[in-house]
Every structure is written in C-alpha cells, then in structure tokens.
Amino acid sequence: MAVKTLDDLISEGVAGRRVLVRADLNVPLDGDRITDDGRVRAALPTIERLAAAGARVIVAAHLGRPKGEPDPKFSLAPVSARLGELLGADVTLAADVVGDSAKSVAGALADGQVALLENVRFDPRETSKVEDERADLARELAALTEDSAGASGGRGGAFVSDGFGVVHRKQASVFDIAGVLPAYTGGLVLAELEVLRKLTEEPARPYAVVLGGAKVSDKLGVIANLLTKVDRLLIGGGMAYTFLKAQGYEVGGSLLQADQLDQVSGFLAEAEKRGVELVLPVDVLAATEFAADASYEVVEATAIPADRQGLDIGPKTRELFAGKLADAATVFWNGPMGVFEFEAFAGGTRAVAEAIAGSDAFSVVGGGDSAAAVRQLGLPEDGFSHISTGGGASLEYLEGKDLPGVSVLGE
Questions:
Q1: Chunked mean pLDDT (size 10), the chain, 411 residues
Q2: How far, in whole angstroms, is CA 382 from its chain's centroid?
Q3: What's the CA gap between 189 and 3, in Å, rounded?
Q4: Which of 302, 307, 312, 292 has its CA nearest to residue 253?
Q5: For residue 155, what pLDDT is reported?
Q6: Amino acid 347: pLDDT
C-alpha cells in the first residue's frame, strides 16, 4: 500500500502551515504524575521534525476513557507539561477540543511552535458509531489548520497520523480526518508497521511468541492466527490458568475464564496437530490473597491448592521459558507473566524480559503492560529490537485484522 510520508510532507514545504498530528499520548498516571512517559518520548521525533521545518504543530491525543465529556482526571495537562519539558519549549494546552480555546491557541501559533488540544475523547463525536457525527468533528479539527483566508500558507493544512496505539480505531481524529485533510503517515507508524511485517512475512526461525496478561478472551484471535505461524507459544500470566484448567488441573482461586475452556481446549488440540510447541507453566507462586504483601509458596502448576491463587510463574518455569527462548531467531512478547506491579510477583516477568533481552533474536515487545514492565523493572530498552507503543493495534495486526487508521492513509 502506497502512502504519503512525513518526508513527503516536509519536502512539499511546511513552513507557516498548520499541521494536525494525531499522537498517542495515553500515558499511565498516578494522580497528575506520569508514571511512564514512553509514549510521549515516542511521539517526539515527528513533532520535532515538523517544528524544525517551521510548521505550526497542533497535536491531538486522548487519555483514558472519559465518557464523552470533560473530566479533570483525564486532562492532558500533565502530558502537555512533560511534552514541553522534552521539547525544551512551551506547549500550550487548549482548554477544549475544537472550541473557542482551541481556535485561539491554534490561531496564535508561530512557525515552529507546538500546541496540544485537550483530550479529544472529551468530545463524544470522537468515538461515535455514527459516521456523520465523527465526520463533523473531523471537519472542525481540520478547520483549526486553516488561516483567516481559509488556507494556511496558501497550501492548506495537513494531517499526520503518528499515533500507532489508536490506528485500530475508527475514530474521528484517527480515521475520518484523513478524508478531510491531505494525510501523511508519521515515522512512528511506519516503523511499527515495518516491525510487524517482519513478524508476519517469513520471520526468521525458530519463531517464539510469549503471551501473558490477565484474560484469554483478550487474545483469542491472535492465538488462533499465531498457531498457524509460530514454532513455540509460551503462555504465562493470568491466562495460563484457563489453559491449565482445560487440561483438567486444579487452579484454586487463580484467575479463570470458565467460558473459554472449550476454546482453549481447541487451541491445545490445534497446537498438537500443527506441531507447535505450546509451553505452559510448570510451577507458580501461589498466594493466599491478591495483595502486594500476601504470603505465598511455590507449588507445582498442576497442584495449586484450592485456597490459593497463582500470581506469578515459579522458578522452574522461568528457567523453562528462558530455555525455550535461548535459540529463538524471532521473539514477540505481549503480556506480563504475573502481577508485576507487586514486587514479590514481578520475578517471572523480569526473568522472561531478561531472557529475551539476552538473546540474539529479533525481539519485539508488544506494547501495553509489557512495555511498561520493561521500564518499571529498570531493564535496558536497547536490549530489545523494538518496543511497540500500541498493544491493541499490534495484536490486531498479528490477528490479521484490518487497521482502519492505516488503511485510510492509502486511499
């Protein structure tokens, strides 16, 4: 699919033009403190290149899941401050999405300056299922790039899609806007897509995938598709207990999706049929309760006491998984191995991350909690070939689904 890129836009000339950039700045917050600024840092290169070329940059982004109306706890104020620190320049935050404040802030931009619109999901039209409603918001966003004569710098505004974490969403600032303004693909989106192509188009083998996280239901499609492509599939995290239960083992109070047992049994049979090595935990840390200070013991994964719950993979499993990753040529990892937010139950996630980082494989961390874990555990990011900014988008791509926010850029 041929797309216009950021290079194309800059070569056309952007000095004096207002450029709307859809970024993914959906960072985790503790109050108003950003606990992981990885997505903000990932957005910098495109914004910096545009600003350096003299563009007047208007950034649109979301944070969390507000219910289509302003909510102070989802304000982008902390993000605006952090973006300004990283850019080394003031970033004005509009008080609304496309209202008087947004118009004023956009209109006051000088060449090379950057502004941020307030959380685009404060406007219910952003996520509307009604196409006309989304289109109305897209037109109002596009209008922010116009000058009083109706066109900025005589060449009009432009849209740059650089929020990979949202390209699987058919939303106004992701999808519909590309039909209103000349659309270009940002460097981050291009880089993410190139990495995902390496995972799906003749990957180097052995190809190992590590999946964790809480729920099997979140990854049904990707598991089904990966079983046709990978050599080894390692399952950890909360989702492992549904696999263990499907094999007839007691899982105690561990996270279990009983309604997925038939589906998981089918995965086990399909893996055997295709010769895919499906590797499950052999031991777990079985805790008395879901708490950071819960007492626990290491037990065999096939014999979890009825009054305990597994919160992390055990030491034998860590060694097993590391061994299965040691000779892999390609590795994709999505989802923690346990409740890594609790120090006592972070060891499994750390062990898997260190095994991947220590391998010679082309290694991709699939965004979301996995990317956060790498940073929270203080592991070197350069130990991995790529750390994705978009967990959901990455998984949908690997599932074989269309990404609307990408497809529209080629139209």
A1: 90 96 94 91 97 98 95 97 97 98 97 98 98 98 77 70 95 97 96 92 95 88 92 96 96 94 96 97 97 97 96 98 97 94 95 94 87 85 89 87 92 56
A2: 18
A3: 11
A4: 307
A5: 64
A6: 96
> To the nearest 10°, the Cα dihedral for 398, 402, 404, 406?
60
Q: What pTM was computed for the model?
A: 0.87
Nearest to 174 by CA among 135, 201, 122, 205: 135
The full DSSP string for 326-377 is HT-SEEEEES-SS-TTSGGG-HHHHHHHHHHHTSSSEEEE-SHHHHHHHHHT
**pLDDT digit string, tens, across residues 112-136:** 999 999 999 999 999 999 999 999 9
Q: Which two tokens stand for residue 335?
A: 């989802």
332 with 199: CB under 8 angstroms? yes
Instruction: Name the maximum alpha-carbon separation found in the chain.
Output: 73
Contact by Cβ (8 Å): 118, 93: yes
Q: Please identify every residue annotated as catalytic.
A: 39, 215, 368, 392
Helices (H) and strands (E) in the chain, counts: 14, 17
Q: What is the pLDDT of residue 253?
A: 95
Tens digits of residue pLDDT in 360-391 = 999 999 877 788 888 888 888 889 999 988 88
> Using CA of residue 19, residue 24, residue 28, residue 31, what is the dihedral sign?
positive
Residue 256 tokens, joined:
């279990």
The Cα–Cα gap between 80 and 91 comes to 6
Alpha carbon of residue 365 to chain centroid: 10
